[in-house]
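Field reference: sequence -> structure
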Amino acid sequence: MDTCYQLEKVCFRYSDQWVLEDFSFEVREGEILGIIGPNGSGKTSLLKLMAGLLRPQAGRITLGDQELAQLTPRALARRTAVVPQENHVLFPFTVAEVVLMGRFVHQHGWGWESADDLRIARAVIRLMDLESVAQRTFQELSGGERQRTIIARALAQQAPILLLDEPTAYLDIKHQLEIYATLRRLNQDRGVTIVVVSHDLNLASQYCHRLLLLHEGRAFRTGSPTEVLTVEHLRIVYGCEVIIDQHPEAGTPRITLPAYVSDAKVVNRDTRTTIF
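Structure field:
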């Protein structure tokens, strides 16, 4: 399997403290990669670096055979589509107009939408179950409807790589499952490479081929869900005890919390001792 993203000794910080330090990793073409880890471990920063929204202070990021820093925003947008964690649409655009924005990178001249652009936009609006709100403004939508609109805009780009930061935030369980099922179909049917940041370990376990577990700005473990999601690994990284068994249908690791939180042991990450 070829490599599409390569990060070599990447270092990044916002101020004095390093968020990612001496970070090396690769994303394989055609895989679904899940990035997991506790708050503050560097997940969103890593995704923004891959999207070209941030620049590392040191190290090298390549996309295919080109350095990311050398690609123009338009060239990068033709290869990667991004679903950010927070979405702001300042003007009263409708859902249909927001989704059509995903077609901008394919337009020329004055940028008028073609019949093909409209067809693709209608298809992803239908796919994301947004037909009933297509003419509403983005500001009128619920949190879940907004999230599905932004995912639809990314799908309209038809990029071969999708970068998603918490794509199921604000969504009910029905739409969570539909989003991940859609991502799997895009991966299987069209070979789209998908990188998804997720706090939901069970969804990541069930739908991702590989997981990258971050801990304090470094890659703690990478591998299949079975290799990464172990009681010991989660105890060290998250500082808590969990129960892991096997999903009855998928056969992937399934994580649950102890029945009574008051009885659960919380692990001090620095000393590895147990606090009662």
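Note: Residues 63 and 85 are 22 Å apart (CA to CA).
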